[in-house]
Amino acid sequence: MMTFDLPYAPDSHDAFLLSINESPPLRFPSRGAALTYAIRLANQRIAQGLDYAINVEGGDGKWRVFQGVGHLLVA
Questions:
Q1: 9-17 long-range contacts, Cβ below 8 Å, gap at least 24?
Q2: Where are the domains of the chain?
Q3: Radius of gyration, alpha carbons of the chain
Q4: Does the pTM of the predicted model rise above 0.70?
Q5: For a FRET experiment, which of 4, 36, 63, 72 has its CA 20 to 30 Å from that of 25?
């Protein structure tokens, strides 16, 4: 299973981080860009019949599983 973790707030350099399988995080200019990238990779996993989980931290500090990847097609 591929796991994506997207924190709510940017880091100290105003980059939004996306960790994949607990590896060093990738940096993005916006939270939306990070989520779009995660969705793109998740759609590739779906096409291969593999599992994924996108964990997104909310403004309240709680982590939730992002739902809807199967409904979103990102070019």
A1: none
A2: 2-66
A3: 12
A4: yes
A5: 72
pLDDT digits (tens, 9 = 90+) for 1-55: 899 999 999 999 999 999 999 899 999 999 999 999 999 999 899 899 999 999 9
Give SS3 for 24: coil
- Provide the strand spans (E) within 1-75: 2-6, 16-20, 26-28, 52-57, 63-65
Q: Which of 50, 51, 55, 49 is nearest to 35 (CA)?
A: 55
Q: Cα separation of 73 and 13, whole Å?
A: 30
Rounded-to-integer distance, Cα 58 and Cα 45, Å: 24
* Residue found by looking up tokens 């939730």 in the block: 64
Residues 65, 55: contact at Cβ < 8 Å?
Answer: yes
* Stretch 52-61: mean pLDDT: 95
